Amino acid sequence: MAEKLTNRARQAQNTKKRIYQCGIGLMQQHGFENITVEQIAKKSKVSIGTFYHYFQSKFDLLVEIYRQGDDFFLEHTPEIIGKDVSCLEKIKDYFLLYAKLSLRDGIDSVRNLYVPTNRMFITHGRAMQDLLIEIIKTGQERGEITNTLLPDIISEKLFIAARGIIFDWCLHDGESDLMTDMEDIIGRLSTSYLNKQQ
């Protein structure tokens, strides 16, 4: 049975959520690099001290975005893993989920994430990466995917391509067909990792 939140805990949760939402709103308007903690606090109607009570820095807003992304994958990837289809199909479905996450978040949010100063994309050990590595490992164990490369290397290469596809979508102001491009390009790249010995 879930514990009932006290009024104080609920208020704290709401304050953190408001700071996060105001920070993301400012980021969408002005870009992550162009906003300050002071602006976020002012927009959230909290003191700077209150901001720092919930977040160590404005970078923590990005960490929260990625935590939510990981939660999205933890929720939806088991369905992909459980399908009775080839590893190649699972990889394509996985990256269609990645595209759906970008579409869900919207072009303005995504555009602010796809900048060279955002190191979260190359932070290892995140759930999003681990789930893909699990799919690839299973594909290798079944002889579908080549064993000439480690699963984390294949995962990394696929993510590089997927980020490029989403970056291109941002360049086109969300006008390109992200789902079609993701399925096509990831499908072609994934085929290069198939076990040719089969």
What does this structure look like?
- α1 packs across α6, α4 (59-81) runs antiparallel to α5 and α8 runs antiparallel to α9.
- The mean pLDDT is 90.
- The protein has helices spanning 7-30, 37-44, 48-54, 59-81, 87-105, 107-113, 127-141, 151-171, 178-191.
- Helix content is 70%, strand content 0%.
- It folds into 2 domains: 7-54, Homeodomain-like (Arc Repressor Mutant, subunit A, Orthogonal Bundle), CATH 1.10.10; 65-191, Orthogonal Bundle (Tetracycline Repressor, domain 2).
- It contains 9 helices and no strands.
- The protein is an all-alpha fold and 198 residues long.
Observed structural traits:
single chain, 198 residues, Arc Repressor Mutant, subunit A, Tetracycline Repressor, domain 2, 2 domains, 70% helix, elongated
End-to-end C-alpha gap: 50 Å
Characterize the main sheet: none
The succession of helices and strands, N to C, reads HHHHHHHHH
Low-confidence stretches: none
Number of domains: 2
Rg (CA only): 19 Å
Shape descriptor: elongated
Task: Estimate the strand proportion.
Answer: under 5%
- Structural class call reads mainly alpha
Helix content: 55-70%
The CATH topology of the largest domain is Tetracycline Repressor, domain 2
Total number of helices: 9
Mean pLDDT: 90
Count the beta strands. Answer: 0
| Highest-level CATH class of the largest domain | Mainly Alpha
CATH architecture level-2 label of the largest domain: Orthogonal Bundle
